Fold this sequence. Notes:
Elements: E1 2-13, E2 16-27, E3 31-35, H1 42-49, E4 57-62, E5 66-69, H2 75-83, H3 88-93, H4 106-119, E6 124-128, H5 136-148, E7 152-156, H6 160-166, E8 169-174, E9 177-182, H7 185-225, H8 236-266, E10 293-304, E11 307-318, E12 322-327, H9 333-342, E13 347-349, E14 355-358, H10 371-376, H11 383-392, H12 409-421, E15 427-431, H13 439-451, E16 455-459, H14 463-469, E17 472-477, E18 480-484, H15 488-493, H16 496-507, H17 509-530, H18 538-562
Parallel strand pairs: 3-7, 3-8, 5-6, 6-7, 12-16, 12-17, 14-15, 15-16
Antiparallel strand pairs: 1-2, 1-4, 8-9, 10-11, 10-13, 17-18
Amino acid sequence: MLILEAENIKKYYGERLITGLERFKLYESDRVGIVGLNGSGKTTLMNILTKQTEPDEGSVVIHTNYTIIRQLEEDEELKQMAMSDNNDLIFREFDIDGINIAYASGGEKTRLKIASGLSAVSSVIFADEPTCNLDIKGVQLLEEKLKAFQGAIVIISHDRTLMDNICNKILEVENGRVKLYEGNYTAYRTRKEAERERQLFEYEQYTREKRKLEDAMDGLRNKVKTMRKAPARMGNSEARLHKRRVNGKKARLDKSVKAMETRINQLEIKERPRDLPKARIDIQEGSMPVSKTVISAKDLWKSFGSRKLFDGVNFDIPNGSKVALVGDNGSGKTTLLNMILEGTEGIRIANGVKIGYFSQNHDILDADRTILENVLKVSIFPEYFVRTVLARLLFKKDDVYKKIEQLSGGERVKVAFARIFVQDINLLIMDEPTNYLDIYSMEALEGVLREFEGTILFVSHDRRFVEKVAGYILALQDGKVVKIGQGMAQYFQGDTKKNKNMKNVNSQKHEMERIMLLENRLSSLNGRLCMPSKTDNVEALNAEYIKTANELKTIKEGMKAAR
């Protein structure tokens, strides 16, 4: 069934084409991933497809109802989601039933957005970076839900594994143009690389042939220039004969030159494939503290009301170490980082430590100020150096005058890093630094963090990032901090809380599967009722819709009574 049609879409920011899409059709079975560099226009494209943003040219027609899981939401909107009663089961599965937004972590807020989106009855899910701030368990649960969903999916994500497992089509946004590729993310990357190699081969063939003809033309022109005039000792008759022969040769050579010019003009011009712009990252390191331990924690505890996050926490962060802090959403990772930054009782920071901090919420940025103003505010360097740093992060020329509120999530991440890079630091504390970053920027960040000689303490849900950067892991488990030196594999083996949660989910497996099937069937029936085909019996479809809705309501009420 056809769900969405977009045709001749164009969206400009000033003179710059952000989105150019000639034709796109979305069908019920499509699982489409949108990829591209930070700031390339991925979210703009999704906003146009969901009619949140009007294109400057072209049209979008959506034939059914849809759900949007946005990248950024205000707390007031999240409060409304938390108070909804659409599907208690999904809220419990994502462990956010009865959540208090005032105390919610970034991961819990993301879980709330996902659960709210999945609980709605719709034929299409549009999701913008839905894995950001999620722990590994949350990412796996999201993947399971998306696999089970029987409608269409359009998703923006930097999670390559998720797109490989979910998507069957990829929309690439590059240099203002949108191109559709069949297959998952790996298939797209393989085809993209093959296209680039073919373009490079054709370009090299073109330049070789053109250079060969140009060299031959230059040789003929030089030959014409060196043709000797008639010697003075020649008689008039001999001189006239010599001149006639020379003019004849010149005419033939000129004719050959013109023929070569025609051949050059007839060559099919091949453009050199563009190299993707990549961020280059350097951290300005301050003098190293002399202490062997830069952070010490002893008998730390934290609770919010009756909810206890952790108690009796003890750990040391050695000077020059690279430490990953991991744990489930809501276990207190961000809270623990904030306690370190605030110098809470029980935490000792060594003398000479200079902290650079990256916040997952980007709350260190002033949304009303420009990129340049935000970075200059904390810089120990002059403006020309700050501009150089921003240019290496792909903010060039007048881009530095954009306000933070105009930037994509990935661009905000880069500005937050730019603030760190222009400070005098020797301890880097980061909370989910890879959120919203494109893959190329993520790889550049991995490289510079490995080379950084200072101390790093970071929170991340990205397994590959943790494996490449961290020397060891501190895991928040059951209100305690456990040191793990063998990487993510050992962390998963010891994650008893995860196993406990899985048992609770399995105990309701039959009811959950039945509800999921009924909800997906309702979504499919609703789409067909909105736009029935010639062969559809509308009365029969309506009767089945009512019967399915009643059955779903009965199961939900039964589960609520059993709680």
